[in-house]
Amino acid sequence: MRLGQNALSQQASRAQGTTTLHGAQDLELGVKLALTTQHTLVPESAVMLRLTVPMGSRGVSADAVLPGINYDLSWHMLPERLSIEGVLSVTRARDQAGRLFVRLAQGFTGVYTLTAHLEAFADWYAFYAAGGSWERGDGRWDGSLPAPNAYLLLRGCLFVHYERLSTKGL
Amino acid sequence: MMQRFPKGMGCHPSAALALPRHRSTPLLRLALRLFHETPWSPRLVGGDREPWVGLCVLRVRRCDVGTRYAAARPHVPEASATVDQGRVLLEGGSTFTTTHVQGLTRHSHMYPEALCGMA
After folding, report:
1. Between chain B's N and C termini, which has fewer beta carbons within 10 Å?
2. What φ, ψ does residue B28 adopt, rounded to 5°?
3. What's the predicted TM-score (pTM) here?
4. Least CB-CB distance to B78: which of A7, A48, A147?
5. How far apart are CA A91 and CA A66, in angstroms?
6. Does A74 touch chain B (CB under 8 A)?
7. Is the dihedral of CA B65, B70, B74, B78 positive or negative?
C-alpha cells in the first residue's frame, strides 16, 4: 500500500507577464501487487492500482478523482550494476483546458549504478491522449508517432540517492 | 507535422535555480546546458508538447526494507519491487524543471515528493 503527497511551486513567464502557482498537489493512494520475479527472460513485474484524491490546493488540484493502473517490469541485467525498467500505464487525467481524458503512457529506462550512492539513468517515454488532448479538443487518438496527441521524449539524468538502512531484523 | 520551437532562453536554466557556488556547480551548469540545448530534445516532441529540462537534485529514503527495493527514481517507470511484509518505506525528493516553449518559460520546483509504502 502506498501513500504519496507532493507540492508544486511554479513560475511561468512570457512577454505579457509572469504568473506563479504554489500549493499542495492531490493526495495519491495506491496498492502495488507483485506478479512475477525475474527468471531468465521473464521480468520482475508488478501491477499498481492508484488514484488521486482531490485534496490539493486551488489551482493545483485536478478537482477530480483520477484513477490509474500501471504495469511495471524490470530486468536486472547485471546485478547491482545495470538494469532495465519499463512501464505501461493508463490514467485518467485533466488537460490544460479542464477536460478529462484518458492518458496512455509507455516508458523504458536504463539504470546504471555508478557508486553506492550515485546512479545514472536514461529513459524514453511516450504519452498518448485518448478521448481528448492536452491543448486540442479533437477527441481522438491517433496512436501513431509522431501524432498530434502524442508526447515523445528522451532524457537523461543523474540520480543521487542517499540511503540509511537499518540492519535490525534483516 | 513537427513544430519548430524557438531555441534559447532569456537566462540560463542554472541561473534561474540560483545555485550556490560550489565546486560541483560548473558540472551542474554543464549538465543543465546539455539538457537544454541538446538539439534532439525539441525535435522529438510532437505537436504542442513541451520540451523540458529536469534535474532531480536529491532523493532521500529512510527505510528498513533492505537493498532489494529500488527507490522510486524521478522517471516514468516505477520500481517493480514491492515492500516486504511488515516493512515501511518512506521516500522524499526534490525536482527542478525548466521548460521553454514558444515564448513561455516555466520554472517549477516539486517537493517533498513524499512517498510512504507499507506492506
Report:
1. N
2. -65, -40
3. 0.67
4. A48
5. 7
6. yes
7. negative
Going residue by residue through chain A, which has 170 residues, state the pLDDT in tens, using 9 for 90 and above: 899 999 999 888 888 889 898 999 999 999 999 999 898 889 999 999 999 999 999 888 989 999 999 999 999 888 878 888 899 999 998 877 788 888 888 888 888 877 766 777 777 777 777 765 444 333 333 333 333 344 444 444 555 555 454 444 43
The interface residues of chain A toward chain B in range 29-58, judged by CB-CB distance below 8 A, are: 32-34, 43-46, 48
B-chain residues near A11 (CB < 8 A): 106-108
How far is Cα A130 from Cα A143, in angstroms, rounded to an integer?
9
Nearest to A158 by CA among A126, A116, A113: A113
Domain extent listing, chain A: 26-160
A1/B109 Cβ within 8 A: no
| Number of residues in chain A | 170
Hey, are the CB atoms on B103 and A15 less than 8 Å from each other? yes
Domain ranges of chain B: 13-118
Look up cell 543521487; give the residue.
Answer: A160
- CB-CB neighbors (< 8 A) of A73 in chain B: 80
Name the phi and psi angles at B46, rounded to 5.
-90, 155
Cβ–Cβ < 8 Å for A18, A12:
yes
CB contact under 8 A, B77 and A159: no
